[in-house]
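re: that complex we talked abt at group meeting.

here r the seqs, copy pasted straight from the sheet so there may be weird spacing, ignore it
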Amino acid sequence: MNALFVICGLGIISLIAEIANFRKWLISIIVLGLLGAAALVVADWNTAVAYYHDMLVFDNFSLAFTGLIIGSSLLWFWTASDFFEALFHKTDKSALILFAIAGGVLMTSFNNMAMLFLGIEILSISLYVLAGSRKEDLGSNEAAFKYFLMGSFATGFLLFGITLVYGATGTFQINTIANYVLTHAGELPSFFYAGALLMLIGLAFKISAVPFHFWAPDVYEGSPTAVTGFMSTVVKIAAIASFFKIFATCFSTIAPVWYTILLVIMVLTLVIANITAVYQNSVKRMLAYSSVGHVGYILLAFLADHKESDGTIFFYLAAYAVSSLAAFGALILVGGKEENTLVERFNGLFKRNPIVAVGLTIALLSLAGIPPLPGFFGKYLVFAMAINNGMIPYVIVAIVTSLIGVYYYFRVIIAMYFKDAVAEPLKVSTSKEVLIVVLILITLALGIFPDFLIQLL
Amino acid sequence: MTLNLFYFLSFLAVLSALMVVFSKNPVYSVLYLIITFFTIAGHYILLDAQFLAVVHVIVYAGAIMVLFLYVIMLLNLNRESEPHKSNILKFAAVICAGLLLVVLVGSLKGTEAIVQQSGKAGIGYVKTLGEVMFKEFLLPFEITSILLLAAMVGAVMLGKSEKTNDTI
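got the structure back, here u go
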């Protein structure tokens, strides 16, 4: 709870920085503040206190995901430091990012549908603007507009769903709804199920599961690379946490209603996202499809056992977030000012800058699921869980799609090592080199000691 | 008295709603729509829902209608520039609206049972709402300020020109 206040406060401080003229110190203040917020999360561990009439509950699940969001934001601020070097709107951008993080924290810790809605809106509205923050670039404008239209449409679905669920149960508290559903199993009105399905659609938009993923590739490609990195880590973590929370508590007892639908969504997500990613020429767009594809594996774990899958999903997301941050960090460096991320631009990267190339390679191998990197353990945990729950056909589908994944990740790796360099060596600042080494170390540490995170939940 | 007021408001509402459709000038249509919204707000007050009435006037009659008027004036719509609508289009519109009417009447016929359940007195008063909002829903109320702040910062950021150098 205090972590949330710290983050909101940091957002307001960064607005004040514009007036009071301490822009130079702003990023350091934000990083210190986020570290403080992380410390507060650790201090609250194992407490599970409900705040303000049960509006927010910070149990271990919420705290773990909040910690993951804060941790990835910290790393993100490091990867995206160039994003704040621009001449204009430094403080506005950092304020919006901080508000988005606050929205993400609300989405992991809500205990009331009103808080869920507010969290999603704070996160989304900040991102609509950030997606369009390269104002002179048409692609960025398109991304912002598309994201705004699709996002408000999805919010409409979600809100309609919440209204119907409220009409059927008479409460916004998710625990009370769960109890009501349990005790009134046979006598729920049919519009309750309609509400649950509308919420499923709204949240599927937010986690960008197929067939509600159409906004994702265009928005990811058009936005500034730094913002794309933010979307594919922090935003994804928050969206999946809220999805899990709603469907593992509120609608857990009516699982038969949404199970088949989610199963279809999961298979479609795995197959369509991974196959479409093969045909992409832009690495950024390919990573966008791959991030849609990763949602499929998370859904597979969720479907295998929606009550017990939180540890697996948490580890998968942590592994995915670190690898994605490393990949997008390298993308920012390679893309340069014009943000050109075609595969050809990666030709001979190993000769141009070995550190960036090795960092990107490890990130991509982890995303592809090659042992001993954490992406492999994430996938292994998901598959083991699915096999234990008798979902062998779906595991086969997932394994085939992850093999397709290996193919398109290796296209970039082959370009980096075996193609001739097209440009002069890539100069990278020391801070970025340190960052890449740190990210490689975190990735390897997660791969070698996966137990540490799995046992948290 | 209340019943007479209800009939009067209903008459005004239906009349102005019809005028919205039948008036040739789009600006008149919007003005008639404002009257419709005011009469509906009157209905809310008759139903003891003061807050809903006030919000209805502020949001619909105030904000949204001003937006409508702006759009109409910006596009310079008037009788001459209005595109000619073919008969088949009118026919299709009548069928669509008729179907909507059937659905609405059908659903409203089934609501009698629900109306009897919610008999809590004073549920629509501003005071009741304020008590809920500042006690139980205090946190969402406060967090909304963050949402509005984010939206404002975003609007300024998108709207502010980056061409001039004198701002930094």
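couple things i noticed - Chain A is about 75% helix and 0% strand. Chain A has a mean pLDDT of 91.
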